[in-house]
What does this fold into?
Amino acid sequence: MKRVVSGVKPTGDPTLGNYIGAMKRWGEMSRDPEREHFFFVPNLHALNVRPDPEELHRLTRSAVAWLVACGVDHDHSYIFAQSQIPAHSELTWILNNYTTIGELNRMTQFKDKSLKQGPEGQLVGLYDYPVLMAADILLYDADEVPVGDDQKQHVELTRDIATRFNNLHGETFKVPQPTVQTEGARIMDLQDPTKKMSKSDDDLSGCILLMDDDKAIERKIMRAVTDSGSQVTAAADKPAVTNLLVIYSVLSGRPITELEEAYAGRGYGDFKRDLAELAVHALKPLRHSHEQLMREGNDKIDKALEHGWWRASELANAKLGEVKEKLGLI
Ligand code: AQP
It folds into this structure.
């Protein structure tokens, strides 16, 4: 059976970008009987923003609840937190010896994030993030890694690390494939369409969070920047409207060309009002389900984590054991 591994970082409350680019699809995929799915919360990755411990704990449990609220079937797939499985950290240390500084220097996400403070002030944890991500994937012999556009480069690096290790020590790791959906792979900030919508952004005015209430969703969409002209069309010189069209298309299941026809000659106002209504309608049930799951006394999150931990640790410990034996580690 094919294995699929993916995760959502607890660095903030998930955004509409996380939902459209990843979690919506994970919910749909998790019921596929042909595949074994592992959805984890990379809380060790989140340490590189030095989070408040209580907040990290809340966000980790909350991310599990969002996965379940987005439809991830936790009986047929496995949800766990990265820190529950020490093999992730141990394999990272080993794989650091199969990764070069040159490779890590080329990672665009690190380059983007280090622009603010410059590379010298960045934490090693942020720099080494792609190696931890490689360990996350390779421990489970993942065939497929469904990611948004921004994470594709990290999966490419994982492939290189796995191939290098296999060439030196014999077949050990499965070389995974990134699977990026064609539409919605990169949802942009509603206030700045040149920037990806990100949950850890300092300014969240252009970010729709899954926990935003109806009014906040409506306000953020109505205040979204648009482009010059008044035609609702997707084009390279219309990045803001194109982004809104992509969101509309994914949430409604209607192709962009059909939406362009439906809004021809009607201007941005009508279009934004309808999109706001659609987004409110799509996100409300997720929010309610999340609220239920987070309620005190509801043990569904703990049960999901226990079920996921059991299967994930079984696979991860076996793979780590194989690697250690090949390297002569006692
Ligand atoms: N804007 C986006 N559009 C489409 N897909 C996105 N993803 C993230 N942002 C967008 C996809 O969501 C999955 C989970 O991402 P993550 O939380 O593990 O890490 P990230 O990509 O770094 O997400 P953020 O929201 O931008 O987090 P921060 O602010 O902490 O860096 C991934 O599959 C990702 O591709």
